[in-house]
């Protein structure tokens, strides 16, 4: 992908963004997954600059046409990749603060929590990410309650991976404390901390400080195995 050339200084990042804009009518999941990943890298790099908000606007502009085409509900005869694509696109739009996506995510989350209409598995992560990214302490408390009540480990893991999307510094600390609690299996702690590190600029700083402050406990827990190296990588 051209982004690797841009990162190497061979071509301008502006040229990369122009290439991305050309994919607005692309129906292929793999292409959108690649676009999403590369835009995520750009967002991370630009989070320390004045351009961060502008890249969020760009994300909304690129992903909203495919989001409108896909909608929120499965269409007759669609395949597994269409469901994956819907989750990817709605999650990207929601996290970037796309107004209509955020409003619909909040509505569907409320119905889910109240048991009126349970979210399908493929929509849970994008909805959870969206409401957390733009949520408050009540939102986080609700998510932690859903985690505690979840019967299946798959749902617990799904929630653990997205908790780091929360934005406020004091709530980020709450998520990091939760990562080392008995509520989270030791092998899943890294996913929670990694989610915080990938959630925001504030999250990265907080996660790195948290790892340093709790290094002895974390190192003793994982004894130099692959999980400790994964933790450092994230």
Indicate the topology:
Blueprint lengths: L1 H6 L5 H9 L7 H18 L5 H19 L9 H17 L2 H15 L7 H13 L3 H13 L3 H10 L6 H11 L9 H11 L1 H13 L1 H8 L3 H8 L1
GO molecular function: metalloaminopeptidase activity; peptide binding; zinc ion binding
Organism: Baryphthengus martii (Rufous motmot)
Keywords: Aminopeptidase, Hydrolase, Protease
Shape: globular
Q: Termini distance? A: 22 Å
The share of residues in extended strands comes to under 5%
Secondary structure class reads mainly alpha
- Strand-and-helix sequence, N→C? HHHHHHHHHHHHHH
Give an account of the 3D structure:
The structure is a single chain. By secondary structure, the chain is mainly α. The protein has a domain at 1-96. It has helices spanning 2-7, 13-21, 29-46, 52-70, 80-96, 99-113, 121-133, 137-149, 153-162, 169-179, 189-199, 201-213, 215-222, 226-233. Helix 9 (153-162) runs parallel beside helix 11. The longest helix is centred in the first third of the chain and has 19 residues, at 52-70. The protein starts with a helix and ends with a helix.
């Amino acid at each position: 992908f051209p982004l690797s050339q841009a990162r190497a200084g061979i071509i301008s990042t502006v040229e990369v963004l122009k290439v991305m804009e050309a994919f607005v009518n692309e129906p292929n999941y793999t292409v959108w997954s690649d676009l999403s990943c590369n835009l995520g890298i750009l967002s991370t790099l630009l989070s320390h600059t004045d351009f961060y908000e502008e890249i969020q606007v760009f994300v909304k502009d690129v992903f909203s046409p495919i989001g409108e085409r896909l909608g929120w509900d499965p269409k007759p005869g669609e395949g597994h990749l269409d469901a994956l694509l819907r989750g990817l696109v709605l999650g990207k739009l929601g996290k970037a603060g796309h107004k209509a996506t955020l409003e619909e995510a909040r509505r569907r989350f409320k119905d889910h929590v109240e048991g009126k209409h349970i979210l399908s598995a493929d929509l849970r992560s994008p909805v959870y990410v969206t409401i957390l990214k733009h949520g408050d302490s009540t939102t986080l408390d609700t998510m932690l309650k859903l985690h505690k009540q979840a019967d299946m480990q798959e749902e617990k893991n799904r929630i653990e991976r997205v908790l780091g999307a929360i934005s406020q510094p004091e709530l980020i600390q709450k998520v990091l404390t939760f990562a080392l609690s008995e509520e989270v299996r030791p092998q899943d702690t890294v996913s929670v901390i990694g989610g915080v590190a990938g959630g925001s600029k504030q999250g990265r700083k907080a996660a790195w400080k948290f790892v340093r402050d709790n290094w002895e406990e974390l190192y003793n827990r994982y004894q130099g195995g692959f999980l400790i190296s994964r933790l450092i990588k994230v």
